[in-house]
Amino acid sequence: MDSIEAKVVLVGSQDVGKTSLVVRYVNNDFSEKVSSTVGASFFKHKINAGKHTIKLQIWDTAGEERFHSMLPMYYRGASAALLVYDVTNPKSLDDALDWINELRDNCSEHLILCLVANKMDLVEEGCDAIEEGRRLAQENDALFHQTSAKTGSGISETFVDIAKELIGLT
Ligand code: GDP
Ligand code: MG
Predict the structure, then answer these.
(1) What is the best residue among 10, 13, 15 to mutate for testing ligand 1's pocket, by most ligand atoms within 8 Å of CB?
(2) How far is CA 39 from CA 35, 58, 89, 115, 163, in A?
(3) How far away, in angstroms, is 44 Cα from ligand 2 center?
(4) CB 20 near ligand 1, within 6 Å
(5) pTM of the model
(6) Is ipTM > 0.85 here?
(7) Residues bordering ligand 2, an ion, CB closer than 5 Å
(8) What is the pLDDT of residues 48-79, one digit of tens each?
């Protein structure tokens, strides 16, 4: 049994659902009112993939995304990034390009990037916000996933996909 440890960082504009996604994934819980203090932390989660156990250390922001710039320690040693946008908020998808540049400036060139279209419970499958996101992901060699932290859809698939990529790195 191989065991891998990996740091995963969450980035994206404020209110896109970063904290909600990680709370849903790790605690299987959701709240309409997410306390901002919840974000001042990181979460640990083990994921089994074949003969591998991957110990994820998932870093959530403490509100620094308001300034569109994270502390260097936030990115240090990160193997993967979840770049989240809100499918009901076009500005958050525009912002995603800035986040990609921020990641390129601060992270390893081997960073696994996954663009996440969140709040899927609020839109129709195949809407513009999704197709534009899919295109942005393709242009930037990123994985693409559609999620809802409210219903839980797509979230474990997202982390499993990242885990597969992490195994591919070793
Ligand atoms: P963050 O600032 O990116 O960490 O975003 P939060 O996790 O604090 O979420 C912002 C707001 O969006 C909260 O009111 C959440 O309840 C709500 N939210 C987050 N994810 C979803 C989702 O998938 N669907 C819906 N309908 N609301 C969501
Ligand atoms: Mg948050």
Answers:
(1) 15
(2) 8, 11, 21, 20, 23
(3) 16
(4) yes
(5) 0.94
(6) yes
(7) 18-19, 39
(8) 877 889 999 999 988 788 877 787 888 999 99
